Design the sequence.
């Protein structure tokens, strides 16, 4: 329920009421009108040319008509008023923010000009009611309502006396900023398609700026606002808005987080924003793939602005997609991390959301009126640019905006790059509304809804007509930050701890422009900084009058028009450097502090760690047992005892001189230090100690260590210079030797490791070398268990047999598996098997657990991850080319496996690292995470210069796959039937049958659907296709291109549809039936474009005249067993001009004729010369016994 109104809440409103009550002293007619004014009887008031017309509800059906007119000022009086205002800067400054200084009445009285009526004779009024009294209760009600409107807009008093607002503001030399028709001016940022500057489409993008901004003090910010603003009667809007700020700032870091694995992550979707006439934003997403189900409910075909690269123009083009409200899109983007690669529009909008959340987190936003017309407005939230980091981030957001991302559909126009700021504003506003939606209690009225829900406020009464201007004036203190031209407060040493304060003017947008004395805005020049002088004067006066409320010393400078400085003391400077400078940061007003006071020393508390006398550390496990901890205080670089510090804080406050330097003793900081000094020193595990030593911090407090601890940590983490195991059947590249030594050093110190080398750098051989070394040194008393995806079992077994044949390896897999570890050095199994058989694994003791493709435990809450982490070996090793795919918590989960507790709990990790880094790109936390994980995570990239020189031009990997159950059954049947027929056939017919068998078995190994010419093309039905999808995902994460070679067009089509269905990626298919023109176009699209990262190539079609050097990866899906043909295909990727190493993956099905033929070719290299000519012909010459041996089905795993 609305409060009973009080009339005349400002001094000028009260002056109106007082004047009316004074002239009513004898008649006592006004009190009768209060009740009518309070109960809403006044239905309408209009003021035009100083005359008041109103309608008041009475006892009759029709309202009574009211006419009121005050005597008008003469032209001479108006000119005198203009002179008084013009000559008084303080008065001008108050007028510039919609207020009247009390001194104006005495100034006017001195010129015998009376602003308020002094008798009823000065008021000509009439009411159509039958009451003869003047004023009647109806007239009295109107007088009280006018009082409240005068509260909101004091210019009304002058208007009633015939002096227009325009002449008042002209006399004050101020610029009238209209609060309506924002939408019309906003639409000017849209330009026709044909007028778009296409150069904007190709502008370069700088490095992504950090989104960690200094948080504003909300309490100080709201000191700038007046309590109980007059336009809102249902409470103190200042307190309500303060609560809104505190709510959204506290909730923004947690409200949008989701804990589940990301089922949907948009990557290659393009997003378009369409506006309508009411500025309602809709998002159109195309194609409608990989989206949450609720998005796909609105699938449609829509015309969107598309860039024609060839014609260098923009035109509408139809796309299939889905339309969703802008707030739904913002909610999705707030919940999902940046994908490793994505469309330009998605990157822009994702960054816009991240920037918006960073601004909300720092409370760096302010509400502003956005008016659609004179009588309709909403409140939106805009950035408060209170430091250079925010300005840089907003500039980056504008440069990131694709030229065709936002458009006004009805008028076929595009939002220019300047409109990126408006998209940012709507995003901030949308997020704030979302944060307030849950449990928000301020939903009682239309005006508050504009602040909390974005509702349109429609003016329907006279009392509401000044609402937009009143809100704008009230918020002015928060909005002046946006002014480029602003005061510069200059403070200089004077003498005896006194300082002189002067005011200059500078242009923050053009730092190279000259600094100008304040006095110049009162001069006769017409322009300043290329702007009209009245605009500059208005901005400066507004800022100074607001600033003077917090720094009263500025009032005298303003009154003297900048000609007379003010003097302040050292204790005044404590307030100026502390509270005032913080407030001025919010206002965007700079203060130049004397050099000696710019970098004030502050007391600093740190936790000092030192080694106990006579102690040494043999491992990190005993680290915590040999360390003493104590609090240590310092001021600048000078250590100070607790006793001396206590004496200092008891005798001093603010700015004090301490040993020839100025020191700031902030009461809150001193209180925090004292609380820590009086608290017990925190207890730490060895892992926490190690983490604190590496990062130099513990729970936000500095952590210092002595030189002995530094040496101990260096010894713990420095790789040992050890020799390779004697039984290793391989030579390691230099970076692989480094990796092996690093793994060994951590292993013997019982520290876990995450080997995170790029795909293709040989992680497996480094781990095998470690296992072999530990075995030879008799450090492997118990077996190692290697857990990997099913597609890698064969690779591990082959590489063990090839590089470490002396090790005894077991495989735990298949339907008839038995977990026997006797005499085994290592057991290979899969994630799924461990999850299902965790009790068996937990009952065994393991020396080491190795997890390959460690991203399989990225979800800490998954049953698979929990199972893996129940194993308690001496050493844990993780291997992953992509330790972080989507979220940093994936790295935490891996580190929680390798070195449990080192990075704290997941909640601690999110608060300390994940949220600051993922949301805000906090460079300090990025560096801390790098320092803390450096000893335990080793990542080398193929692009590293030190790695490139160690790699050959072409690195070949044999990727071994198993037949699936479906494949094995078909393989067995085909071989049995074929061999029986071959045995009964001779001559050329026999050779034909063998060729047919080879083709059939190749097709079976490729995919059951390839052989049967029908059925499902799901990748899990084939070991090769499953392996291919795994490889493609890794290659995509590396943002590299890949060629897939197959001999068969049918298999190429299967792969193309499979990749589209399972990875949502379009691929190119280069085959022999393409015309020359289509071939050339396809090659150009792959080589030069960014859309296609995968090309499938028919081996015959790709055999000649093809140059595809943009690919750095090759997959040979099926083999010819002809090294020359295979090499010719691979060479498509590193012809002359290739400057990158090429990784080649040869897919071979274990236990089948593919593996046996490949082994024969490798064992008898002389055959390579023969196969250049004969291809597979030699196989047809084999005897029946040899054929049976070659084609015999694989044994079950």
Sequence:
């Amino acid at each position: 329920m609305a409060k009973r109104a009080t009339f005349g809440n400002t001094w000028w409103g009260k002056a109106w009421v007082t004047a009316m009550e004074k002239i009513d002293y004898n008649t006592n007619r006004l009190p009768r009108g209060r009740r009518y004014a309070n109960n809403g009887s006044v239905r309408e008031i209009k003021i035009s040319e100083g005359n008041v017309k109103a309608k008041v509800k009475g006892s009759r059906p029709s309202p009574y008509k009211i006419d009121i007119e005050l005597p008008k000022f003469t032209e001479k009086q108006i000119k005198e008023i203009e002179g008084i205002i013009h000559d008084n800067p303080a008065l001008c400054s108050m007028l510039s923010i919609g207020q009247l200084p009390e001194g104006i009445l005495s100034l006017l009285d001195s010129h015998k000009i009376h602003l308020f009526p002094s008798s009823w004779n000065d008021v000509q009024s009439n009411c159509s009611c039958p009451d003869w009294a003047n004023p009647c209760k109806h007239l009295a009600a109107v007088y009280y309502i006018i009082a409240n409107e005068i509260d909101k807009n004091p210019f009304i008093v002058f208007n009633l006396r015939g002096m227009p607002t325009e002449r008042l503001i002209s006399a004050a030399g101020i610029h009238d900023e209209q609060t309506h028709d924002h939408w019309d001016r906003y639409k000017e940022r849209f330009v026709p398609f044909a007028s778009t500057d296409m150069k904007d489409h190709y502008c370069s993008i700088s490095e992504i700026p950090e989104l960690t901004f200094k948080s504003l003090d909300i309490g100080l910010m709201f000191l700038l606002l007046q309590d109980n603003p007059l336009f809102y009667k249902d409470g103190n809007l200042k307190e309500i808005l303060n609560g809104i700020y505190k709510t959204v700032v506290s909730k923004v870091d947690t409200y949008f987080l989701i804990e589940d694995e990301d089922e949907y992550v948009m990557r290659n979707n393009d997003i378009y924003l369409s506006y309508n006439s009411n500025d309602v934003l809709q998002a159109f997403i195309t194609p409608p793939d990989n989206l949450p189900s609720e998005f796909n409910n609105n699938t449609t075909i829509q015309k969107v602005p598309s860039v024609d690269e060839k014609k260098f123009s923009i035109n509408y083009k139809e796309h299939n997609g889905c339309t969703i409200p802008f707030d739904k899109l913002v909610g999705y983007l707030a919940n999902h991390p940046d994908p490793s690669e994505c469309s330009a529009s998605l990157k822009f909008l994702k960054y816009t959301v991240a920037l918006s959340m960073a601004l909300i987190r720092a409370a760096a936003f302010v509400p502003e009126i956005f008016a659609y017309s004179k009588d309709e407005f909403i409140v939106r939230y805009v950035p408060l640019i209170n430091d250079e980091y925010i300005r840089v981030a907003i500039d980056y957001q504008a440069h990131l905006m694709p030229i065709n991302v936002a458009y006004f559909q009805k008028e076929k126009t595009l939002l220019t790059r300047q409109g990126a700021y408006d998209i940012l504003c709507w995003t901030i506003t949308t997020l704030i509304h979302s944060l307030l939606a849950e449990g928000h209690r301020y939903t009682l009225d239309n005006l508050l809804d504009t602040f909390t829900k974005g509702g349109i406020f429609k003016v329907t009464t006279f009392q509401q007509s000044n609402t937009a201007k009143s809100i704008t004036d009230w918020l002015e203190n928060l909005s002046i930050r946006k002014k480029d031209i602003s005061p510069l407060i200059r403070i200089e040493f004077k003498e005896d701890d006194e300082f002189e304060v002067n005011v200059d003017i500078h242009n923050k947008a053009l730092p190279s422009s000259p600094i100008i004395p304040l006095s110049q805005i009162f001069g006769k020049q017409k322009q300043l900084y290329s702007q009209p002088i009245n605009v500059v004067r208005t901005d400066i006066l507004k800022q100074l009058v607001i600033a003077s409320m917090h720094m009263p010393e500025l009032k005298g400078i303003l009154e003297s028009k900048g000609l007379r400085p003010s003097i302040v003391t050292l204790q005044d400077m404590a307030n100026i450097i502390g509270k005032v400078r913080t407030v001025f940061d919010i206002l965007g007003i700079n203060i130049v502090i004397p050099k000696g006071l710019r970098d004030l020393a502050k007391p600093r508390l740190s936790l000092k760690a030192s080694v106990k006398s006579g102690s040494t550390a043999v491992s990190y496990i005993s680290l915590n047992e040999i360390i003493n901890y104590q609090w240590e205080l310092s001021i600048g670089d000078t250590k100070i005892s607790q006793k001396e510090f206590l004496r200092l804080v008891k005798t001093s406050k603010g700015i004090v001189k301490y040993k020839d330097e100025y020191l700031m003793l902030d009461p809150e900081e001193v209180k925090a230090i004292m609380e820590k000094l009086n608290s017990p020193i925190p207890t730490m595990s060895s892992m926490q100690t190690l983490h604190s030593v590496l990062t130099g911090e513990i729970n936000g407090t500095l952590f210092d260590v002595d030189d002995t601890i530094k040496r101990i940590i260096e010894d713990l983490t420095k790789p040992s210079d050890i020799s390779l195991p004697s039984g290793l059947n391989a030579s390691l590249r230099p970076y692989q030797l480094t990796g092996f030594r690093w793994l060994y050093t951590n292993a013997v110190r019982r520290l876990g490791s995450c080997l995170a080398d790029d795909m293709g750098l040989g992680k497996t051989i480094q781990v095998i070398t470690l296992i072999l070394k530990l075995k030879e040194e008799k450090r492997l008393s118990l077996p190692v268990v290697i857990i990997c995806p099913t597609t890698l079992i064969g690779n591990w077994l082959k590489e063990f047999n090839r590089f470490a044949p002396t090790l005894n390896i077991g495989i735990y897999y298949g339907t008839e598996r038995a977990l026997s570890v006797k005499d085994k050095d290592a057991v290979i199994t899969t994630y799924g098997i461990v999850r299902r058989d965790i009790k068996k694994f937990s009952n065994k003791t393991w020396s080491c657990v190795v997890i390959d493709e460690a991203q399989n435990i990225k979800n800490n809450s998954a049953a698979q991850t929990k199972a893996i982490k129940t194993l308690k070996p001496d050493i844990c090793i993780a291997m992953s080319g992509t330790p972080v795919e989507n979220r940093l918590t994936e790295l935490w989960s891996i580190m929680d496996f390798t070195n449990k507790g080192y990075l704290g709990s997941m909640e601690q990790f999110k608060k300390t690292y994940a949220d600051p880094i993922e949301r805000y790109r906090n460079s300090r936390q990025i560096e801390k995470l790098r320092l803390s994980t450096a000893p335990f995570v080793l990542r080398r990239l193929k692009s590293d210069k030190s790695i490139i020189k160690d790699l050959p031009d072409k690195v070949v990997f044999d990727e071994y796959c198993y037949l699936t159950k479906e494949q094995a059954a078909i393989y067995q049947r085909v071989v049995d039937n074929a061999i029986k027929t071959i045995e009964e056939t001779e001559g050329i017919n026999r050779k034909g049958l063998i060729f047919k068998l080879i083709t059939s078995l190749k097709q079976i190994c490729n995919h059951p659907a390839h052989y049967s010419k029908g059925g499902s093309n799901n990748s899990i039905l084939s070991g090769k296709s499953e392996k291919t999808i795994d490889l493609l995902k890794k290659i995509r994460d590396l943002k590299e291109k890949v060629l897939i070679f197959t001999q068969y067009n049918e298999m190429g089509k299967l792969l193309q549809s499979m990749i589209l269905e399972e990875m949502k990626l379009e691929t190119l298919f280069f085959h022999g039936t393409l015309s020359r023109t289509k071939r050339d176009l396809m090659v150009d699209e792959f080589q030069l474009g960014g859309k296609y990262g995968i090309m499938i190539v028919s081996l015959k079609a790709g055999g000649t005249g093809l140059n595809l050097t943009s690919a750095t990866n090759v997959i040979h899906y099926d083999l010819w067993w002809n090294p020359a043909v295979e090499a010719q295909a691979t060479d498509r990727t590193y012809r002359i001009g290739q400057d990158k190493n090429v990784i080649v993956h040869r897919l071979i099905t274990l236990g089948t004729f593919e593996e046996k033929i490949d082994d024969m070719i490798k064992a008898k290299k002389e055959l390579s010369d023969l196969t250049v000519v004969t291809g597979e012909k030699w196989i047809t010459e084999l005897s029946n016994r040899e054929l049976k041996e070659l084609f015999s089905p694989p044994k079950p795993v």
Remarks:
- Confidence is low (pLDDT under 50) at residues 1166-1174.
